[in-house]
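Retro notes (design track)

What went well: tokenization of the new backbones is finally stable.
What didn't: we kept losing track of which sequence belonged to which structure.
Fix going forward: every design gets posted as structure first, then sequence, in one message. First example under the new rule, 176 residues:
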């Protein structure tokens, strides 16, 4: 297994390559910027220093949004990082309503590493929602609220501050 820094650098490069042809919803920002911001939020805003958790943050959308699968991540980054990235992946084979319910059910019992990455993902999606139409921003807010509601019972004490910061971001974006 590589050193902590090597692990993060490799995860950043892997995420950038995996998402290389994708753009954010503004149609200008490379999608990899989102994965980098999720990692930075986990580290700088939430205070997470564990390099494997930060690698999972960088890789959180690779299984869902690219041809990458669990085995690809397990081989390169180990079973923990792969499991946490897989835990952040929605089953795209399901219809939207079923998929969202299954995802919320999973979040309700997820490991803390998955939860902190999801909190950082929500935080970034909300931060990045200013360019969305009012309708799409409301959809982002609604999904964010539903994920937070699902996660709340599973949040361990050490993630309480991160959870509260994410709730505050929801209120900020909602204009409350």
């Amino acid at each position: 297994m590589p050193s902590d820094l090597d692990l993060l650098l490799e995860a950043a490069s892997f995420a950038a390559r995996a998402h290389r042809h994708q753009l954010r919803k503004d149609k200008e920002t490379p999608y990899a910027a989102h994965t980098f911001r999720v990692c930075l939020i986990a580290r700088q805003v939430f205070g997470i220093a564990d390099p494997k958790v930060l690698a999972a943050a960088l890789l959180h959308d690779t299984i869902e949004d690219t041809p990458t699968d669990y085995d690809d991540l397990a081989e390169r980054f180990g079973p923990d990082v792969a499991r946490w990235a897989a835990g952040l992946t929605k089953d795209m084979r399901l219809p939207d309503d079923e998929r969202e319910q299954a995802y919320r059910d999973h979040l309700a019992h997820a490991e803390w590493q998955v939860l902190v990455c999801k909190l950082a993902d929500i935080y970034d999606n909300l931060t990045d929602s200013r360019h969305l139409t009012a309708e799409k921003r409301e959809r982002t807010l609604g999904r964010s609220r539903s994920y937070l509601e699902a996660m709340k019972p599973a949040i361990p004490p050490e993630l309480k501050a991160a959870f509260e910061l994410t709730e505050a971001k929801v209120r900020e974006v909602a204009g409350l």
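Added context from the reviewer: The chain has a mean pLDDT of 95.
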